[in-house]
């Protein structure tokens, strides 16, 4: 069983006031399926309340009309030690989000590094505090050349991991950091060589199965003890509890229609 303890975190989120599914840029998006924006807002508020109730600080960015995916704040940038590596989105529908997030980070006074390579922020970057390195995904959204750029911008070593299943188009749909040393991941979302790397680096990882991944159970946020996880992912919650974590289920069924859940909605501000 994992010896877990919580640490207070600081997060950035964006209200889904303009959320809808008006285009399809991942396998989860269906433009013919109805979306209840009011319900999405209420579910998002429940997430914010859960974070604050567990001692975390929540900042919000103003949503902009015409950017329905801006609610997925994880994609807006990636921060380590107060330095921010900005996003550069692959699809034109989301590209204006980068400027909105850059404006927010610059106004907050953090050192912002503008990218030249395509990357989708914390969607494809995960920070492991213990060893102090970055896990970086590629294959569908982020250009692998952005990995070196992020490493240079943030002064951290980067481990590149290839995603091979388009259902798990971002790293944060297939892998999550649970505490300073432990991760959880779905092996089949990665290439054979990337699976080997993950086994070598994290022999004590919590291994997810396909049902966990399809329920967005890996799109989670952990404070080292409490794990905020999609309510649908009951199997994942049980795995986490068996390892000493406390699962905090959050219903984000409306936001899952856009291809995201808990982690997609949260950018961690690592000061």
From TrEMBL:
Residue stretches spanning the membrane: none
Name of protein: N-dimethylarginine dimethylaminohydrolase
SUPFAM superfamilies (UniProt xref): Pentein
Taxonomic lineage of the native organism: Bacteria, Bacillati, Actinomycetota, Actinomycetes, Micromonosporales
One GO MF term: arginine deiminase activity
Keywords, alphabetical: Hydrolase
A single GO BP: L-arginine deiminase pathway
